[in-house]
Structure formats: C-alpha cells, structure tokens
Amino acid sequence: MSKSMHRLFFIGILILFFEVRLEAQQKYQFYLKDEQVESKRVDFNLKASSGMWTITPETFLNGVEEHYYPLNIKGETTDEYSPNFDYQNGNKVCYCIFEVKDDEDKGIGNSLLGWHSPEKDGQWQVVLCRNYAYRMDLDYAIGMANIDLSSVPVENFMLETGSATIQMEYQPEEINPIVMDTFMIKVELGAVKIKRLNLSRARHIIAKVGLGKLSLDFTDELMDSSEVHAMVGAGTLEILLPSKDLPFIVYLKGSPLCRIKLPKSLEKIEDDVYASNAYLEEPEKAMSFSIDVSMGNLSLKLK
C-alpha cells in the first residue's frame, strides 16, 4: 500500500473515531411547589453524569430577595443527556430525585482524555429555599459545580465526585440555621475545595480521598465541637485549621509511604497527637481531627 493510501486510511479512522456532532441545547425546568411538599423537609438526591452546575439559596439569585419554590431546577443540555425528575412524600419528608444521565455512557475515562466539555454537556442551576430543611446527596461523575449553602437549613449533606471539580463555600457569617448531623465528602479522582466548613455546624465531618485532592477550610471564627474523620489513599488532603486561639486537637496515623506537613506552632501532646494552645485550657470544647494517611499527602496549615 502506498504512503498516500496509508495516510487516507489513517485520516478515515480518525474521522470515524472523533465524530463531531453539532447539537442544539434543549432547555428544561423542574420544580416543587409548596403544595407538593407535605412538610417543611426535602430529601434531595442529585446524580449528574456531567455538565456545569450551580447550587444557591434563593437570595443570591440575581441578588433579588423573593420567594422561590422549595426546589427549582433550570438548565439546558444536548440530546445526549436525559434529565429525569421525580418526587414522593412519606414519613413527613418529600423525597426528590433528579438525574442527568449520559445516554452514551462516555464515562470518566473519556473525561480524563479530554473528550468531555462541561460547558457543552449542559448547564444547570439549582435554587433552594431557606424556608425548608434539606437532606442533600450530590453525586457528580465528571464536570464542574459551584455550591453555596449560605444560611440554608441542611440536616445532612453528602458529596461524591468521580473526576469532577467542585467549589463549595459558606459566605461569611451565613451559618447553617440548624445543627447538621453529618457532612460527608468522597473524592475519587476529582478536586474539591470547601471554604468556611465551620459554618455548616456539622457534628460529624467524614472525608475520604482516593486519588484526588480535597481542600477543607475551617478558618471562620464560629466553632462547634465537631469531629472530623479523614482517610487519604494516594491523593492529597489540605486542611486550613482554625486559629490557634481556638481549641482543637489532631490525631494522626501515617505510613512510611505518606507525606505529612504540620505547623510548627502546634503543641505535641504525645506521639502523633497535636493541639492548639487553646486546647490546653478548654479541652472539653475542642474540635477534633482524626486523620489516616496511607500513601498520599497531608498538609495542615494554621489560619
């Protein structure tokens, strides 16, 4: 076969492999009305294959203070994705499921190779109402998300990501008006950054990092006596600790294959146990960190 035939054959294979389709974006809106929710509690389960996502309280939508539905979802995506919305009431809770499924099931591998574009895969906005209490379970396979739960009543929160990039924060002094039981984060290959996690008022914070990266910021002055349990596989965990003037204690478990960086100003209580200066005075009010690192990296920094 001649060189020109080889070249034509190779180009043909590339065209078949990298098929380009220009598809129109389809617009959608899903919502719960007040009369559809039998109580003031919403259990919201979100499962997203890809796309760009924002989750905000109603006050921050265009900067206008007005009443919104208990759950309001707007977005647009291509025909490759099938959004599905369903809800039912039971046990004084409204259970709501929203799934955006990739009909072609491209998966995380294609995202890592750059064959997914979050912007082209769809853009979605979820608006919450501060008059309702939420349980939230968010699962992002790939894509990007910005989450703001400032002043939103949240009883339990779970976030899981495949290779997605997630930014989450509480605005200064915009605390959760109710005490949260559990705040759980699971990062496989993605990157998650959470600012002012103190303001969630979670009693228990559980973090699991596989190969990805997780950054947790506890720098706000408000502190509850939270327990933080973190496990790191081969990824990276960064924690911005509260001020050393606030009571907290850190329990570490490492291995010869991991790398751990600690602030020099922490007091060493015993082997692999460190504390702030304020802990020695008020241990009963302390926030605790229990961190287990296998092969990855841990970096602790003070405010």
Question: What can you see in these coordinates?
Answer:
There is one protein chain. By secondary structure, this protein is mainly beta. The chain has two domains: 23-144, no CATH class; 149-303, no CATH class. Helix content is 8%, strand content 49%. It has three helices and 23 strands. The chain has helices at 3-17, 107-112, 118-121, and strands at 26-32, 41-48, 52-57, 71-77, 81-90, 93-102, 123-128, 133-140, 144-148, 154-161, 165-169, 180-187, 191-195, 202-209, 213-217, 227-232, 236-241, 248-253, 259-261, 267-270, 273-275, 287-293, 297-302. Strands 5-6-2-8-10-12-14-16-22-18-21-20 form a twelve-stranded mixed beta sheet, with no helix packed on it. The protein has an eleven-stranded mixed beta sheet with strand order 1-4-7-3-9-11-13-15-17-23-19. Strand 20 and strand 21 form a beta hairpin. The longest helix is centred in the N-terminal third of the chain and has 15 residues, at 3-17. The radius of gyration is 22 Å and the shape is globular.
Key terms for this structure?
globular; single chain; mainly beta; 303 residues; 8% helix
Layout of helices and strands:
Elements: H1 3-17, E1 26-32, E2 41-48, E3 52-57, E4 71-77, E5 81-90, E6 93-102, H2 107-112, H3 118-121, E7 123-128, E8 133-140, E9 144-148, E10 154-161, E11 165-169, E12 180-187, E13 191-195, E14 202-209, E15 213-217, E16 227-232, E17 236-241, E18 248-253, E19 259-261, E20 267-270, E21 273-275, E22 287-293, E23 297-302
Parallel strand pairs: 2-6, 2-8, 3-7, 3-9, 8-10, 9-11, 10-12, 11-13, 12-14, 13-15, 14-16, 15-17, 16-22, 17-23, 18-22, 19-23
Antiparallel strand pairs: 1-4, 4-7, 5-6, 18-21, 20-21
